[in-house]
Amino acid sequence: MTTIDIFLKPALDIVLFYHCFPYSNRLYTIQGLNYNTYGLSFENDYNLLPHHFNFDLLYSTDFKNNSNFNFGLEKDVRFSDSFYLNLRASFETANFNNLQYHSYKLNLEKSVHLFTKTDYEEIQIISGHINYDGLSKNKDFGYGAGFKKSIVRNVKLGTSFIHWQKFNEFNVNASYNWRRWNISDNYKHLANYEEFQLGLGYSFYF
Fold first, then answer.
1. DSSP state of 35
2. What is the pTM of this model?
3. How far apart are CA 6 and CA 33, in angstroms?
4. 67 near 61, Cβ under 8 Å?
5. Which of 91, 136, 148, 203 is most exposed, with minimal Cβ within 10 Å?
């Protein structure tokens, strides 16, 4: 008879878990070409405000008469596992060539498939109120629409159009991401206000 002895030896397995946190903060240096302004912009995705609110703010100035300030607050509102909307409220004010305006906007955004089943496009419905003290004085409500899409890897384009009572507002923006770095271009035309801003940003986590 053959006897087989079996010995059990304890083994120690070391398993390493690597957690990759998304870069939730972005800091930009901003330059306005038309009004010769310089400033900073900061964006946070979810980890500073309660209830997963995102926010962004921007301030730029020429240290004389021209300045620009923006503040935005947004949140994803989820109705089910497969359906959610992005809700954004923003305030913007600018002083330029001894003129000024103040605008308040509410954006409703939804990601959809328009062209292919693998790529998403973002559709926006925009409403707001403006107080424009420029050459065309206006205090009224407005409405409009916006569109965003990634065209190639790491490049995203967006545009929006808002109709106010006596004039229109037109915005175009583009961004390129490379690792932690971001390059952004923003163009705005609003009655007598016209500005082209360049931004260089860096993403980080804390």
1. T
2. 0.83
3. 80
4. yes
5. 136
Q: Which residue has the tokens 């600018």?
A: 94
Residue 111's nearest CA partner among 138, 142, 140, 150 is: 150
The answer to whether residues 196 and 189 touch, using CB atoms and an 8 Å cutoff, is: no
Q: In this structure, which long-range contacts are made by residues 14-21, counting pairs with CB atoms below 8 Å and at least 24 apart in sequence?
A: 21/205
The 10s digit of each residue's pLDDT in 56-94 is 999 999 999 999 999 999 998 888 777 889 999 999 999
Whole-angstrom Cα distance, residue 77 to residue 88? 10
CA of residue 199 relative to chain centroid, distance: 13
Instruction: Give the position of tokens 């419905």.
Output: 125
Greatest distance between any 2 Cα atoms in the chain: 108
The encoded tokens of residue 113 equal 């498939």
Cα 156 from Cα 177, distance rounded (Å): 9
pLDDT more than 90, % of the chain: 64
Cβ neighbours around 146 below 10 Å, total:
19
